[in-house]
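Known limitations

Files may contain more than one protein. Parsers should not assume a single record per file. Below, a two-record file is shown to illustrate correct handling: read the sequence, read the token line, then continue until end of file.
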Amino acid sequence: MHILLIGFGSRGDVQPLLALGCGLQDAGYRVSIASSLNFRALIEDAGLTFAPIRTDMQALMTGEHGQQWIESGNNYLKQAQSMRRMIAEAGEAVGQDLLNAAHDADVLVSGLSSFGVADAIAQKFNKQHVTVLLAPMNPTRFHAATMQPSIPRKNIALNRFAGYVGQYFTHWIFKPVTDQFRASLGLESLRFGGFARAYNQRVPVLYGLSPLVMPRAEDWGAHIHVTGYWFYDAPNDWQPSDDLSRFLQAGEPPVYIGFGSMSATDPEGTAHMMLEALQQSGQRGIIHSGWANFTADQLPDTVYLLDYAPHDWLFPQMAAVIHHGGAGTTAAALRAGVPNSVVAHMADQPYWGRRVHELGVGAPYVQRTKLNPQRLATMIRETVSDAGMRERAASLGQQIRQENGVERAVDILGTIVKSGPVAASRPESTR
């Protein structure tokens, strides 16, 4: 039984699939991961088969449309427009590469960005299709499992409607690429009704998230599962550089500040803002350069500029973690059991910032477009100094570390595999 996992996105989209893939492989399945060329070494080092998607995700994210997407803030229309243009850049190659990767696969496990193409392949060639989500995408009236932060809690009946609006934008973003690929297979255009039925009723959903953080909504169907996080940890023999070790040993635990794959038009200005905020808050800090290629002309002894360190190794040693609110970084910070707060750039990041604060383990999130040294310093001080927050973060981290999301996901997938691919070819998906 060959299971193809599709990880088209940033490292935060790929790394959970490494954990799931290793779990499936240990259970006796043949596993491959289709992903962009940036992550070939990461996948192969995990002992999994790499299926190439001829796309450079870093180039996409740092390109014109990627920059526009990241800098669109909480303007959801601009986010959708920018993402649609960015997806169009890679669309044709992605479809053909996934078709090649899927030719001998029995089960396709897609993500948000690959859902339409994977569903078309599954329908055309009678394969099973399961989707993996790392942020809430299925409409629900329950506040804690919906991404729309603008709906007041007392108006929870509107949450479900807002969820469908969010799905409509998702369908619109990927529709040109999906329809072009479907036409190449001789399939009809996928209208929103068919897309919504596929997402909400037909295709099994695995949320690789902790139910402690994103609880399973009571109004979701039985085909939607919240398994617990899927963590892929650094090899046991990973060692930090001598410089990083010396910095960690030279004083009190520092504050980590990093925005992951979120690039910036003014990376040096952003780095200097981080430096000023650390100085104002009186904290030592580790600044992660990430894909933004942050630089700083002169760093004080109290700040370390980090290229890379595994989150599972680094975060437990921090006084606090300030990050962009990517699903993977949020999960790692929560598991580490340290307070963490979010500077949200776009997409699902405001949701994670909201949930971190609602759980009492972080300060209120700040939108990136509104960030300045004073606001960042205030966030740092609140995240570091709140004893109750620190206790709640430690307790939640301990509970998350006791979960076994991979094992549960493998069990669920095993049950789905036994059911056969009947649902994948239902004609309603083309109406």
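...continuing to the second record:
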Amino acid sequence: MVLICVGDLVEDIVVWLDGPMATGTDTPARIERRRGGSAANVAAFAVAAGGAARFVGAIGDDDTGRRVADDLAAAGVDVRVQRQGRTGSIVVIVEPGGERSFLTDRGACNSLTAAPDAWLDAMTWLHVPMYSLAGGPLAAECELLIAAARQRGASISVDCSSTAVLTSYGVERFVELLRTVPPDVVFANDGEARLVEIDVNGPPWLGRTVIKRGPASVLLYEAGKRQPIEIDVPPVAIVHDSTGAGDAFAAGYIVATQRGASPQGAATAGIALAQRVLCNPGASL
């Protein structure tokens, strides 16, 4: 069983602020450079959870691209990339308490085209973040990969990723995209779910919607059912950095589902993996 994650592999420049940002002057901070990208994170976390994962995407033909690709491969991920242009970078600003904001330059990420059929060998699950569907050649390629996954009988998940990306793309357009190729699972946080209205009032043709709400319970909505299943989230004493927690949740959920877990069991596995990320800097365990 192989999970294929298609999308971004970038360099994360993670900035941990010691206090509030002082506009127009200096703010003490700790800065680290790490491998990032939502799809790459899910693949790496899936391997850490005991699954098999392949990353499919595009990076720059540069030292940064080679470094992040080598790092992802060292994490046990089967890395299949096209190389052109320059590798993307994301500045992640982490405030005291763990909340983070992103300054995003995706670089070559959007340039993936014509992924070889061999890159889909043994695929049993395809995971696509909304970042990958937002535009450019990558979006068109992802639609082809989703169709190929459906034809091969693989499960499909879509992560809503970002309210900013959803708003820019267009909420009605996104819902129509989901209608065209209904995924088996949609991951969203509370804000994304409210924006797209894919919870209790959402379209009945969706398979399962998994709504993450930070420290509040995770909600599982099944197609056509008005009442969600609630999964309690154990408290976390200290949150160092929430970067990548949603990706870890998706990875834990997918790997557990592939092993035969119930939706409740899969959500519990996702919560446990995400909470490990909260205790570490950046998208790391």
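Parsers that stop after the first record will miss the second one. For reference, the second record is described as follows. Residues 97 and 239 are 6 Å apart (CA to CA).
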